UniProtKB/TrEMBL annotation:
The lineage of its organism: Bacteria, Bacillati, Actinomycetota, Thermoleophilia, Thermoleophilales. The chain crosses the membrane at residues 21-40. This is Signal peptidase I. GO terms for cellular component: plasma membrane. It comes from Thermoleophilum album. Coiled coil: none annotated. Its EC number is 3.4.21.89. The keyword Transmembrane applies.
Length: 210
């Protein structure tokens, strides 16, 4: 009886090839899921609140490891879930407070939206805002990243000092006149942080570390 033609694959070998391909695809998808869930996640800048550091549409990589073992540092650019009070249909601080002070407490519920801002105030510190600049424990913070336009809104002048609660961080956008941030809806707990933005990969002319 004649055997299979030279070079022809048996049904068993074809099935083995398909199974191998499916295994490779499955492993690749699983690895991508693990990387995004636990290690690194891409993020697109949605607004002008971080200009000139990050432009609308710019893309960054966010690492999700550092804050599992340590605490955020001042100046870190962080992707996080803001409080529910940051949502347009709520737009509220978590507690009543004087109009000339930053919001001292967020709403207890968090939003489902992802925000990106910079860590400005740390737990236990006192903070106020004068002329768009943050003052920490009575001293003006050096902020080379900040953009402060002459027509900055009322949130650029909040002279009544508040104390940041333990375990909470005061977040602000670099573009002080165009950022809705902790000044309006309060500091956020560390557990709402997704990760630290550390590298920008798009557009090509902006590729590099943050």
């Amino acid at each position: 009886m004649a055997g299979p033609a030279a070079g022809a694959k048996s049904p068993r070998s074809r099935l083995a090839g398909i199974a191998e391909l499916l295994l490779v695809v499955g492993l690749a998808l699983g690895l991508a899921f693990v990387i995004q869930a636990f290690l690194v996640k891409p993020f697109r800048i949605p607004s002008e609140s971080m200009e000139p550091t990050l432009d609308v549409g710019q893309r960054v990589l966010v690492e999700r490891v550092t804050y599992r073992f340590g605490n955020p540092s001042r100046g870190d650019i962080v992707v996080f879930k803001p409080p529910r009070g940051a949502d347009p249909d709520v737009s509220a601080c978590g507690v009543s407070h004087p109009e000339d002070s930053p919001c001292p407490r967020p709403t207890p519920q968090r939003s489902d939206t992802n925000y990106i801002k910079r860590v400005i105030g740390l737990p236990g510190e006192r903070i106020k805002i004068l002329g768009g600049h943050a003052y920490i424990n009575g001293r003006r913070l050096r902020e080379p990243w900040a953009r402060i336009d002459p027509g900055c809104a009322s949130t650029c002048t909040l002279p009544l000092e508040i104390r940041i609660p333990k375990g909470y961080y005061f977040m602000m956008g670099d573009n002080r006149g165009a950022s809705a941030d902790s000044r309006e809806w309060g500091p956020i707990p560390k557990r709402w942080m997704i990760g630290r933005a550390f590298f920008t990969y798009w557009p090509p002319r902006r590729i590099g570390p943050l």
